[in-house]
Design goal:
The structure is a homodimer of 171-residue chains.
Chain A lengths: L2 H8 L1 E5 L4 E3 L7 E7 L2 E6 L5 E7 L4 E2 L2 H5 L6 E4 L3 E7 H10 L1 H27 L2 H11 L3 H4 L2 H8 L3 H8 L2
Antiparallel strand pairs in A: 1-8, 2-7, 3-6, 3-8, 4-5, 4-7
Helix pairs in contact in A: 3-4, 7-8
Chain A binds a DNA duplex (30 and 30 nucleotides) through helix 8.
DNA sequence: TCAATTTTTTAACCTCGGTTAACGATTAGA
DNA sequence: TCTAATCGTTAACCGAGGTTAAAAAATTGA
């Protein structure tokens, strides 16, 4: 059994319209989502309502709140920036299947390893790079992102305000 | 087979003296380390030599460079702040064993999941909190750290200069 | 114990990015 | 097509944190 088999057996297809949420910060949501089509943003809100964007998601990406999977509440919200199709997979089924099937367990290891590497990379960028360096890096690694994501959202992803990003661009 | 069995079979005990490195940024090092005793810092250096501290490690913690495990070179250095005893485990053996043993594969899933959660937490702090908020949080969650780690190092972990941390403290 | 080293503090000055606000430009809906 | 939102830009002002340097405090080692 591999991940695709698991998805076929336990996954359900979901459709979300642009501007609707898959889940909200604070929700209980023990599902793993695999994006089939669409664009989403995962973001935090602080107590004053200020927004901080964790990541953008495109077809092929997958996402879940590790907090929610393990303790209970989602630490962030997931919003569709475009109409989105995704597969929703109960995490309990994933763990259950992994505990019984070696091939699947190893597929989950691959998945978690690549997730861990992405998070470590982001940690590096936020810790070691200036806003301007993070912008340059994004421009280099994901030049297409600027066609799909507003500058407003990109700024919040880089950890700065839209005003600051506008300033960085024009110099 | 579980992680302890694996460690017994393939792990080697190592001793490092204070101020010596386990590995350096740029090294190839396909090992997983489990700290038995000691205090270490994992840190990045940028091109100008400036230091950014990724994490501190204490007994019971484990560490590896995910970059090095998967592509080749360590993205950071690992330095002993105190005399350290640790167990060194070849990553190839871990993967080999996981591919053959269900119980172990599931133990690795646990390990990676907790690693992913820690990285996600750090991402949150760097993205959403101010330096002062990060300091308050550290003070609350790890009050003992201030006995083991110099303020200099804590500042670099928080993503600010020692001068800035001294200012934050005295207000 | 004393000198050398390291760590922490303080001060002056500077830069980057935040805040607010106003104004175009663009997009989306009716 | 026209109107209302949304988005991006620009400017003025402010504050957090960086830089440099020097001094004070603490630690280390001979």
């Amino acid at each position: 059994m591999n991940l695709n088999d698991l998805i076929k057996e336990f996954g359900t297809n979901q459709h979300y319209e642009k501007k609707t949420h898959v889940f909200l910060q604070g929700d209980e949501d023990q599902f793993l989502y695999v994006i089939q089509e669409g664009v989403l943003k995962a973001y935090y809100n602080d107590v004053e309502g200020k927004e901080y964007i964790k990541s953008f998601l495109f077809s092929g990406d997958n996402i879940a709140s590790t907090q929610a999977l393990n303790q209970g509440k989602c630490s962030f919200s997931l919003l569709c920036l475009e109409d989105t199709r995704l597969i929703k997979l109960p995490y309990s089924k994933v763990r259950e299947a992994a505990s019984k099937n070696l091939e699947l367990a190893n597929a989950i290891i691959e998945l978690l390893m690549s997730f861990a590497m992405k998070k470590e990379q982001r940690e590096y960028e936020l810790l070691c790079l200036s806003a301007e360096q993070r912008y340059e890096k994004l421009l280099k690694n994901s030049p297409n992102i600027f066609q799909q994501i507003t500058q407003n959202n990109i700024a919040r992803y880089l950890g700065i305000t839209p005003v600051a990003l506008s300033r960085i661009k024009h110099k």
